[in-house]
Amino acid sequence: MFKLYLFSIVSLFFIISCANIMPLSGGEKDITPPEIISFEPKTKSCNFNQEKIIIEFDEYIVKNNITKEFFSSPSLKNNPIITTKGKKAYIELNNDLEPNQTYIFNLDNCFKDLNEGNVLKNLKYVFAIEKILIVMFCLDLLKKLLAILNP
Known about the structure:
By secondary structure, this protein is α+β, with helices and mostly antiparallel strands. It is built from 3 helices and 9 strands; from the N terminus they run αβββαββββββα. Strands 1-2-6-5 form a 4-stranded antiparallel β-sheet, with no helix packed on it. A 3-stranded antiparallel β-sheet has the order 4-7-9, with no helix packed on it. Strand 5 (81-85) and strand 6 (88-92) form a beta hairpin. 12% of the residues are buried. The model has no long low-confidence stretch (mean pLDDT 83).
């Protein structure tokens, strides 16, 4: 009887001492901003005739100071309505777009991930109402000239 009692106490001691109770760490902290999976319609589109743009991200996002950070070139009469839901951002244009224009939406610092608040930088959406992207052609030409001038 004594041996059974002693065995029970020793067994209980080992069971209790083996369990190392610690809180879960949750893994490494997320320090990367959301990444874009897709644009609908695609950025740098020509003959643009949509009223809504959808941007899909790789993680859940929220808006970040959109009223201060968003701007377009050329300026729009009314700012677009920008909403987020889950991993997608929706941009409703609610404007009459000028014909023969190339538009650039600067969305730098407009979105951040839901949990850690990592802000997405350097996000632009470009589209043209006409058949060619005038701005993209000019930027490409400028890059080539700079490469020639600064070998």
